[in-house]
Amino acid sequence: MRIADRAIVFAALLLVAATGCDQLDGRSQNRKGNAAFRETRFVDAVAHYQRAIKEVDDPTIHYNLALAYSKVFKPGGEGDVLIDVADDENQACKVIPGVKTVTKQICFKQGDKHFLDCDDKNVCASSFKCEKKEICALDDMKLADLVAEHYTAWLKSHPADAETRALMTQVWIDSSQYKKAIDFWEDLLKAKPNDPEIMGNLAGINLKANDWRKSIEWYIKVATASTEASAKVAAYQFIGNVAWSKLNSKTLTRDESVELADRGIGALQKASELQPDNPKPFGLMASIFNFRAQQDGVSWAAAIDRATALDLQHTSRVLNEKAKKAAGASTPAPPVPGAATNPNPAEKKVGG
To answer: 235 and 140 in one domain?
Structure first.
């Protein structure tokens, strides 16, 4: 599940004494970067922020720079990302670290930075010309590293910013740098041992990395560390969801499928013991028993699993009906017409 982009920080720079020309230029470049970002000119925004950060090492500029780089980064991409046309007037190619120059035949229009390939078969739009250009480029993985580098600089001053941690983690996941994400969250866990939220993130990252065994281990730790029954049940149901998803993908060997089914069933049994009136664990168990039955073909064990699945499906339906009746009986009366409901909702404050 991807996370929504946070608005760029337009807070004033907190500088000790803005008396030097360098500091004034840094603040000016930050403002220009903000304007470019608003206009979705993300490469130009990066260039302005890069110039600003050289003059003023401020956490706000680091955050803005990370956010702008994240817009240039291509999730799931491989190889070079074309940045801008390399010429003497272009500041992006000069200030972005690590760029190289490549020759490409592209659809070109002054000011546009999409750089689509063109040839006799791939014809450009009428407002573009197919031209051979020198373009500066940067490996997509290096772009991801720059995003993380500047988010990290921001987090040093704002360690409680959970949203930025999530944004940075998503960039590592999108660039398949799972180890960096895991190392980051394991370091956080050292400072807050047995924290369910941190362990839940580690479970999710390991699942993205296709290590379902490690993911299940972390979800079990979440269940063990949680003090509320609902949180324990949620963790056990996550294990059931992992089992269902992987079994449904039909990418596992028979032995792996049986092992995973057993783990999923075991976790869901614990969930049903904690919440015996909750229909979800029973329904999910029924599906997993059916998956396990498929591994045994026509056999006595498969028949038992299918029969068990039918019983669980029946239990799930009964509990669902019971829950619906209970919900109908406890439905609150409609509000009185004209009555005020939360007339002054709180607005989310954006920024660090």
So the answer is: no
